[in-house]
Amino acid sequence: MRAWIVWSVATLAYVIGVLQRTSFGVSGTDAAARYGAAPATLSAFVVLQLVVYAGMQIPAGLMLDRFGSRRLVFTGAMIMAAGQMTLALTESLPLAIAGRVAVGIGDSLTFVSVLRLVPAWFPVRRIPLVTQLTGMTGQLGQILSAVPFLALLHADGWTPAYLGAASLGLIAAIAVLAFVRDAPPEKVAPKVTVRAQDIPGILRSTWMHPGTRLGFFTHMGAMFSVTAFMLMWGVPYLTTAQGLSSGEAGAIVTFGVVATLASGPVIGYLTGRFPTRRSWMVIAIIIGSAAVWTAVLVRDEPSPVWLLTVLVLVISVGGPSSAIGFDYARSFNTSRVLGTAQGMVNIGGFLASLVLIQAMGSIMGAGAGLTFDGFRAAWLAQYPLWAIALIGVVITRRKARRREGVVPRPLREALRRTR
């Protein structure tokens, strides 16, 4: 029971962290009015946050090994609360950007720290299930930002909404101090010290393994579309370009979160059953996302609600599919560099997301703005990223298999073994 209490409180902090991460995306049009910001400037808010998040992945892993999960989850919650409070109280654009940077720093410390608690508190046989539950539960933060946070924003205004989000962060931080411990009393939480002069060699050797790069391109190709949609441009696109009400847009976003939660266990099961076919699932997700976006973008008028729902359904599956990249990191790297490899994989999706978000803002700022035509031109920036990811997956898959001597079994034989 103690293990579940520790996990629940830490995961609650992660849920609130996801709320802090995604809150700006659902309030993009309100932010434009508050700060007098153009689309490109709005993109810079989220892009800078993602740059900080991605850049902090490897340092966060090193700090986690040194200080433990409890301290990092607490610190992350406090930093995010400070960032949200800054947004709530300021009308200065530079200060608002600093607030989002703080959110990115705190966010970068949270997820990896919560995952670190799982093997410390649960038996080996439960680790895969609890790890999956952690990622799935965290997505509830998107629902909190899309429904109650957005409702509070429209009902009471900017400052009360963001002060409410900051208050939740403070509550999470206090709960972590009260209930979370790095490991049970009978266990000693492992501490790893890496000398500064060893870091460049570790980073170079880890990246040069094709399995790490396969994970990077996997995470990249499956993740960036849904991240850009949920984190920044989704709600403005649905309301401004597609003509939906805020309630309808919130419902579609919520449906996307539900689709993410539902597809996670299925993808996890298929990954475990067909480990040598994981790349085909990734390729299918990338092609499927590109196909449904094409169906929406070729239209010269707003799409019907059912097509937009299908769009969100398909791209939302990309969220849990991107986790296959971490599975590659585990498969092809030793435990000594596993944290470094997973940090590199995690950078892939967020790097592509920030490139897309910034590119979309620049395209709309230089063209038709936040309009139907402006958004349609901006979403086309996804296609080069999909092409890069697909080429990367195909090339690094071949190199990784050759290096490790992996020979995929015929699909017919693999299917027979699952009966």
UniProtKB/TrEMBL annotation:
Gene3D superfamilies hit by this protein: MFS general substrate transporter like domains
Compartments, as annotated in UniProt: Cell membrane
One GO location term (cellular component): plasma membrane
PROSITE patterns xref list: MFS
Transmembrane segments: 37-60, 72-89, 161-180, 214-237, 249-272, 279-298, 304-326, 347-371, 377-395
Record GO terms (molecular function): transmembrane transporter activity
Domain Major facilitator superfamily (MFS) profile: 6-404
Keywords linked to the UniProt accession: Membrane, Transmembrane, Transmembrane helix, Transport
Lipid bilayer topology: Multi-pass membrane protein
A Pfam family this chain is assigned to: MFS_1
Major localization listed first in the record, in broad terms: membrane
PANTHER family given in the database record: MAJOR FACILITATOR SUPERFAMILY MULTIDRUG TRANSPORTER MFSC
Name of the protein described by the UniProt record: MFS transporter
Organism of origin: Tsukamurella pseudospumae
Taxonomic classification: Bacteria, Bacillati, Actinomycetota, Actinomycetes, Mycobacteriales
